[in-house]
Every structure is written in structure tokens, then in C-alpha cells.
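Justification of computing resources. Each target in the renewal requires a structure prediction run like the one illustrated here; the chain below, 207 residues long, is used simply to show the kind of job we budget for.
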Amino acid sequence: MVDSIYGKKIGSTQIFKENGDAVYVTAIEAEPCVVVQVKNKEKDGYNGLKVGFGSAREKKENKPHAGVFAKNKLDIKKYIREIRVEQFDREYKPGDLIDATVFKAGDKIKISGNSRGKGFAGVIKRHNFHRGRMSHGSHSHRIPGSVGMCATPSRIHKGKKMPGRLGGKKTTLPHSEVVDIIEDQNLILVKGSVPGAKGNIVLLKKI
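Resulting C-alpha cells:
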């Protein structure tokens, strides 16, 4: 069955439970995803649905992108993504909709999306290294320190923690929870934070 949907992070807020406890939640706008193509194991090697979502202007999209929707006489959507499916619970066809009702309050989900890109960062910010002493003539404050070898093997091993690009890569939160579903606004409220900035596209999958 289909247990995933794509959505757009639109911000965070807090809601109150019946006992008065405040819960920090992130709102995800999950407008209905329209099925563009159905994939199956016999033909494609796996079960999945190619879906489109997000409003788009036809003249802004290139011909290959627009042709995917024109083939099935569907309105053009801004994004095209795939949802993997273990086993179909029913027969899907182009034009079918997948909306926020695939979840209900209390469902455990995992959320995947690109984290915020923070540019080039040193080892203290990137890997939580400790800094060096700040006094007594020390010149080692925020530098990584010794990283290489001597005669053998005369190189730096792969995977060495060093300065470099921080963030801007796919991140998955494995244990999140759906707090509430607001169907008339296509909103899914999930407990806690969600990767990325406002407007980031994320995948919500039931676990």
C-alpha cells in the first residue's frame, strides 16, 4: 500500500494538548500528489508511483518536463518524484490522487530531505572538535592538528575528519510522529523539527 507522500515545509509552531502541555510541531503542506506513471516489478523491476505536485506555469517548464504530463492529459506540476511501494493495495492509474489521509494522528514516520547548506566549515563546527589552549604561547586554537603520516604510508587515509562543506545533503529523521492532520488545508503537523529551510521538499514515509 502507498504509505508515503511528498510535502513542503512551511514553518513551525506549537499546539496544546488537552492537558495543557505545549508540543513543538512543524507544519508540512502536503497537497494531493497526482499519479503520472505506475511502475511494476514485471516491467520496471520494482513497484512505484511517479507523482507530480506543486503549482507550475506551463511556459516556465521545459518540453520534456511538460511532455510527461501532456502524455496523460494532466495539468503540469512543478515537481516530479517517485514513491516506492512494497505492494499495491489497489489498482492505480495516471490521474489518481494521493493526499494527506495516508496518515493519521499518532502514526510513526521517517522524514527525508536536504539539510541546510552552511558552506565551508572548520573541524570545530563540522565535527565538534575541541579547540586548543588559548594562552601560554599556543598557536593551535581552532586548527585540526596533525593529520598525516610519516614514511609509512606517507598519505592521509580516506575518511579523515577535516574542514569541508557542511550540510546541504540528504538527511533522514528516523523516528518522528504525526501529531495532527488538517485535511481542509492539506497540512500535516509532525512533532519536532524537519530537515531544511522553509519551502524545502521532504518525503514522509510511515514506519
